[in-house]
Structures are given as structure tokens and as C-alpha cells.
Amino acid sequence: MCGIVGIVGKRDVNTQLYDALTILQHRGQDAAGIVTCQGNGKVAQQKANGLVRDVFRTRHMQRLVGNIGIGHVRYPTAGSSGPALAQPFYVNSPYGIALAHNGNLVNADKLSEELFKTDLRHVNTDSDSEVLLNVFAHELQQQGKLIPAEQDIFAAVEGVHKRVSGGYAVVALIARYGIVAFRDPNGIRPLVYGKRMTDKGEEYMVASESVALDVLGFELIGDVAPGEAIYITFDGQLHRKQCAEKTALTPCIFEHVYFARPDSIMDGVSVYKARLRQGEKLAEQILQERPNHDIDVVIPIPDSSRVAGQALAYKIGVKFREGLIKNRYIGRTFIMPGQQMRKKSVRQKLNPIELEFRGKNVLLVDDSIVRGTTCQQIIQMAREAGAAKVYFASAAPAVVYPNVYGIDMPTTKELIAHGRSHQEVCEEIGADWLIYQDLEDLKAASADGGSGVTEFDCAVFDGEYITGDVDKDYLDKLEASRKEGKVKKKKELRAKEEESPIGLHNDGEDLHIH
Ligand SMILES: O=P(O)(O)OC[C@H]1O[C@H](OP(=O)(O)OP(=O)(O)O)[C@H](O)[C@@H]1O
Ligand SMILES: NC(=O)CC[C@H](N)C(=O)O
Ligand SMILES: [Mg+2]
Q1: Domain limits of the chain?
Q2: In the 3-class helix/strand/coil scheme, how is 201-243 assigned residue by residue?
Q3: CATH number given to 3-249
């Protein structure tokens, strides 16, 4: 779940893109990139590993000129996390296209082979996003137009939907012509768009989350529908078309649990309200399981569980205390690459206020338990701070299946709840009592707000993969390739720095790529 953004403006869009990426930073901390384009077709790019504030210097911003542009913050789900895989990716034919992608493709290997053998295209990295870019470029090339019209762009997106399977929200810049954005036919990954009136005319923006539009003063028009594409020309004409034959709206429910900011609205669902309802439903379950519970205090694990924790505490009539204080300079742990870094960060990030724990029966609330990295350490901290009993509630059900649509959970082995009973997980994390949200309750928490969304991608909880092409065989292969990847990574780390892959269009200083 990376963050993507695209703006078609009436003046330089570089600082707007930068601001939008800082707002979407919670969706990816590994790399960031911006590509802009001027009316004469000149494209400029800056991308590198790091947070937005570290990747773009004044000297870069000054040279990222142009009225249209796209940006990306990356959380790796495919390929390595090196600088060559930072996005947007660029291909020079046809027209010059840069593309940024949130999601993960299920059939990237097959497509990669097809691109090489049939489409005669070279993909230089193991990024599925580079594959996606080349499929789109090929489909657009097939239209054979010197100046592409909206129907050519839409025909290319139709071609993409026919060939590609997985979760994908995409924004692409076509040099000289405009920006196209599209979403997979199941609407797994989020994408919204909006407009803003300026003294020079109307400007458009597409982004992963509505909060980016809010902060930049754009008015939300709505979500890009599953399978739909929108094309905004350089001079600001907006065109929309449904480009998939069969569509369904099944957004990833984990966005509501963890990924999205609570102040975002996705497919009409307020993430904040969904989290409040998650807390209330969890509270009902607690009251049902233990009507005479002895919880003295509810303490959330910051940041993502705060909203659910507060609603839960209110409903069970127990005080809510911020007993764990977060270091605001440490990022999100779950989306960091590598278990060692994740483990170390939990302690750096969170510190208990002893007074809130000493002698009390504490209910810790988190939005989810995935690898168990966070809860194991926090429960230990709570005990060291003198808690009498440590109970643990998760606002999501047990995560037991891998994710293949844009969350980096490719193997079951790393999931603490996989192959363990409820009681075994409780013992493994060291809690005195463990409560998981019921899946139907979680779905209801997202559906109850009246948005009309009733189906969700819940594969990590129920193992049902919406694209229909993910079976045991596929998951076994994925798991095996991940193991190979790890071995390769270790070897790579040992290798000299100059041997690690570098990007084709990324020399860092010369921003113009043609
Ligand atoms: O079981 P785990 O593998 O530890 O994963 C789950 C934890 O990771 C996330 O927190 P994170 O620190 O990433 O972000 P947050 O500050 O938004 O809560 C999530 O909110 C849980 O706390
Ligand atoms: N989290 C994402 O959306 C990742 C996008 C893409 N699969 C990558 O690894 O770069
Ligand atoms: Mg957390």
C-alpha cells in the first residue's frame, strides 16, 4: 500500500506534489519520487530511498518544473527495496510515460515473460510496477497514434485490465498530453480524485487518500470506480470511462484497520467512523465473553488503535488512558523492511507511563496483530511497568493468510496466528487474555456507515482471494521465492555497494530524463 498522487495544474505542481506526498507518508517510508512535465514535453524526475523530506532538496524542487506531475511513496511488496525500485518508473516509448503504482500484481512473472517474448520490451528490475508500466505502454503503442485521444488512452487501460491480475491503483503521466489514473476491476486499492478552482482555472488531483485532497484545498469529487479510468489532459479537460468488462467493489478492509489515515474517506466509508465502530463491536464481544470483567483501564497502542480503543473503553464503561507515549520521530513499524529493524523500533517508539500500569488490570488495544512484533514487546513493557494483569484486544481478527494485493505479508510462517490456536497465540504473546474481533463484526464496522459498500477483500483473515487465480500452488511458490529472495538479499548485502542495482533514469543530480 504505497501512496500515489497526480496533479494537473495551471502552474508548477512540484510543491503541491511534495506536500501531498508528506501527507501520504504513512503509506510508504522506503522511497519517494516525483515526475513532472512541461507543455513542451520535457520531463523531470527525482526519486530515491528515504522519507519525502530527505529525498527532495531545494535544488531538486527548483528543477522539477511543469504543470502536470505525479508522485509516489513506496512500501515495497515486490522486488527489493533498493533505489532502482523507487517510483515513478519511466519508459520513453510511446510518448514518454511515467507511472506510479499502489498494489501488487499476481501474474507479474507471466507478464514479464510475455513482455520480453511477445511485446519485445525490456524490464530492468524485479518490480511488478515496472511490468505494469510496460504493459500499459505496449497497449498504448498498439493504438498507433501520434497524438493520443482519450479513447486511445481508455483502450490501453482496457488492454491492461485484460492482461493484468491483482490489486492496482495507478497514476501515469503521459508526456505532453496529461495524466491517467485507474483502479483494478475489484477496487482493492483506493483512489480518489478532486478539483480546485484557481484564478487561472480548474486544477485536478488524484490521490490514494482523500486527506491529501483536503489538505491541499481540493474538493473531493469521488472515488475512481473499480475498473474505471480517468484521463485529465494537459489543459485540464477531464474524461472518464469504465474500462473493465466485469467489476465489483471489494476494497481491502485492512485499509480501514491500519493503513489509511482516520481522516480519510474511502469509497464513501469514513475510516474514523469505521474504527469507532470496530471499537464498539469489540466492546460488545468483551461484555458478552466476560460480563463481569475486571478491567481497570483501557490503553491503546499508538497510533493506529487509538480511535477503536477510545470507543471500546467508553462502551465498556472503563477509563481510557494514553499509557504508552509515542516518539513522534519514529515511523510506522509494520511497514519497515526486515524483522530486526521492526523489533528494534517498537522499543524506540513506545514508552510506558508507569503510573497508568502499576497494580492495574490493563486492557491493551491494538488495531491488529500480524507478526506479533509489537504486542509481544508491549505486553512485556506493561508487566515491567507493574501491571497486575495484561489483557489484549485486537480490533481485527487473527491474520492467518498471506496478502498478495499490496501488503507485504507473503508468507504464512511469519504470521503469529498461523497454525496456532487462539490460546497458543495468547501464550505466545504473553497475555492473560486475548480477544480478537469477529470477521463479520469487522465487515459490519466498515459497512454500517451507509456507504453502500458491503463486500471487502478480507483475504488475510479468510483466505478468499478475490481475483480467483491465487491458489495453494501459487502461495507455495510465493513462499519459496521469498525464501530465495532472503538468501539473495544477504549475499547482496555482502557484495560491494557498486554491485547493487542502480536505476536507469536516476542519476540523482541531472533531473531531466530526455
Ligand atoms: O503484529 P505486528 O507485526 O507488530 O503488526 C501490527 C502492528 O503494526 C502496526 O503498527 P505501526 O507501528 O506500523 O503503525 P502505527 O503507529 O500506525 O500504529 C499496527 O498498528 C500494529 O500495532
Ligand atoms: N505497497 C505497494 O503498493 C507496492 C507497490 C509495488 N508492488 C512495489 O513493491 O513497489
Ligand atoms: Mg500500531
Answers
A1: 3-249, 268-452
A2: EEEEEEECCHHHHHHCCCEEEEECCCCEEEEEECCCCEEEEEC
A3: 3.60.20.10
DSSP one-letter string for 346-373: HHHHEEE-GGGTTT-EEEEEES--SSSH
Say which residue the cell 536516476 belongs to.
506
**268-452 carries CATH number 3.40.640.10:** no
Let me know: does 239 contact 248? Beta carbons within 8 Å. Answer: no
CA distance linking residue 80 with residue 108, whole number of Å: 15
Fold equal for 3-249 and 268-452:
no
pLDDT for residue 121 is more than 60? yes
Q: Which three cell numbers stand for residue 229?
A: 479510468
Quote the percentage of the chain above a pLDDT of 90.
86
State the closest ligand 1 atom to the C-alpha of 258, by its place in the atom list counted from 1. Answer: 20
Q: pLDDT of 239-261, one tens digit each?
A: 999 999 999 999 999 999 999 99
Question: Going by DSSP bridges, is the β-strand pair 43-49/269-270 parallel, antiparallel, or unpaired?
Answer: unpaired
Catalytic (active-site) positions: 2
- Which ligand has an atom closest to residue 377 CA? 1
The answer on whether 469 is annotated among ligand-binding residues is no
Q: Is the predicted ipTM greater than 0.90, yes or no? A: yes
List CB contacts of 107: < 8 A, sequence separation 6 or more. Answer: 164, 165, 166, 469
Give the integer Cα–Cα distance in Å for 329 and 185.
38
Please state, in angstroms and as integers, the Cα–Cα distance from residue 471 to each residue in 162, 204, 417, 475, following that order: 20, 40, 20, 6
Residues 6+ apart with CB under 8 A from 59: none
* Pairing verdict, β 265-266 and 238-242: unpaired
Report the alpha-carbon distance of residue 432 to residue 410 in Å, rounded.
30
Residue type, 416: I
CB atoms near residue 289 (< 10 Å): 10
Strand intervals (E) in 386-511: 389-394, 433-436
Report pTM.
0.94
Ligand 2 nearest atom to the CA of residue 102, by list position? 3
* Residue 320 confidence (pLDDT): 98
Enclosing H/E stretch for 73: strand 68-74
| Amino acid, res. 148 | P
For helices 373-384 and 339-349, the axis angle rounded to 10 degrees is 30
Encode pLDDT of 43-54 as tens digits: 999 999 999 999
Q: Is 304 annotated as a binding residue?
A: yes
Counting ligand 1 atoms within 8 A of each CB, the residue from 305, 347, 374 with the most, and so the one to mutate, is 374
DSSP 8-state secondary structure symbol assigned to residue 256: I
Which residues make beta-bridge pairs with 22?
none
Phi, psi of 60 (to 5 degrees): -75, -45
Q: Is the CB of 369 under 6 A from ligand 1?
A: yes
**How many Å apart are CA 260 and CA 254, to the nearest integer?**
8
